[in-house]
Write a structure and sequence with these properties.
This protein has 331 residues and is of the alpha+beta class. The chain has 6 helices and 15 strands. Helix 1 (5-11) packs antiparallel against helix 2 and helix 2 crosses helix 3 (102-124).
């Protein structure tokens, strides 16, 4: 049975694992919705429909002509070891007059780095730059049919300044948001991923258009009782920043249709094994205390999660792009 990271955190009874899982979940907001299935090998295979077989009507008494044009492609996905070692000098066990427990501080820093790195690879993972990790949504959608890349402007046009005019607001919500939502597995959208500025921009565009936000947006709650924006029932999450704590994972400097470096994107995701994407793992995340000792002066706790991303369909992810960087919108 598939579970989300949030469900794993609830079910876990080991206090060390539960602590790490909860900390990861605070920053991996997609972990509330992305399901992970256990696999028993380093690679899994599936079939993607390349071409459907033909069908026809027939007259009474006639027979159907055999058709063998239906075809599939084999798709292989993998899991990848992900984590790190947290080294604690034995001296820390003798120190008690600190404001922050140094052992806990190092563990928290390691788990935060893991969470931000996972978020980055969820969008930007690419075997062209790192073969040791899974491929993210940007790379996957680039290999899908062209209809999975939606732009609310004409081809080769400048990035859309959403609040420059009423026409632009309508183009964003009609030719952009609505279209991307419907093109993602026929409207079966489970998650919308964007940047912080773009998430804030949704509300700005509605206020500019004098529309009530409730007509388009709703709110839910996550595992930490934090408000989550929803569009047509699908949560909208900010994917955040990279582990350097400054670089946006979904930037405002993407190449626009006119070749300018002032665009940004949103990703609409269906989470299922048929047309969408799911997470895969070689068993749950592990936290191994005293996994390695260094000549008796220190011990090291291993945190490792052998995981990956898996998608066998062609229509489960849509990238809405050619949106002007929201901090430069007119309103």
């Amino acid at each position: 049975m598939a579970y989300t990271l949030a469900q794993f955190a609830k079910l876990e009874t080991d206090p060390n694992k539960k602590y790490v899982l909860r900390n990861l979940l605070r920053e991996i907001k997609a972990g509330e919705y992305l399901q992970f299935e256990d696999v028993s090998s380093l690679t899994v295979s599936g079939l993607k429909w390349r071409q459907l077989p033909s069908v026809a009507f027939r007259a009474l008494g006639d027979d159907y002509t055999e058709d063998t044009s239906g075809d599939v492609d084999s798709v292989w996905e993998g899991v990848y070891p992900f984590g790190g070692l947290v080294k604690f000098d034995r001296i820390y066990d003798k120190v008690s007059n600190t404001v922050v427990d140094p052992k806990r501080l190092q563990l928290d820093m390691k788990t935060l780095s893991m969470a931000l790195t996972f978020n980055d690879y969820l969008i930007n993972g690419d075997h062209g730059t790192d073969v040791k990790a899974f491929e993210g949504l940007k790379k996957r959608v680039s290999l899908m049919p062209t209809r999975q890349k939606v732009i609310p402007t004409a081809a080769s046009a400048t990035a859309l300044d959403v609040t420059a005019s009423a026409a632009n607001v309508n183009a964003f919500w009609g030719k952009g948001m609505d279209k991307a939502f419907e093109y993602c597995n026929r409207g079966n959208v489970d998650l919308i991923i964007t940047s912080e500025d773009m998430k804030l921009g949704l509300g700005r565009s509605l206020r500019y258009g004098n529309a009530a936000g409730g007509h388009f947006l709703d709110f839910g709650k996550d595992s930490f009782d934090r408000a989550v924006v929803q569009y047509k029932g699908a949560p909208v999450i900010d994917i955040g920043i990279k582990a350097d704590q400054s670089t946006e994972i979904i930037t405002d400097t993407e190449t626009a249709e006119d070749a300018g470096a002032d665009g940004t994107s949103m990703y609409f995701v269906s989470i299922n094994k048929e047309q969408g994407v799911v997470g895969i793992q070689l068993g749950p995340l592990e936290v191994v205390p005293e996994a390695k000792k260094d000549v008796g002066t220190a011990n090291q706790t291993l945190i490792e999660w052998v995981c990956g991303l898996c998608g066998f369909g062609s229509y489960g992810v849509v990238r809405l792009q050619n949106i002007l960087a929201p901090d430069t919108w007119t309103y």
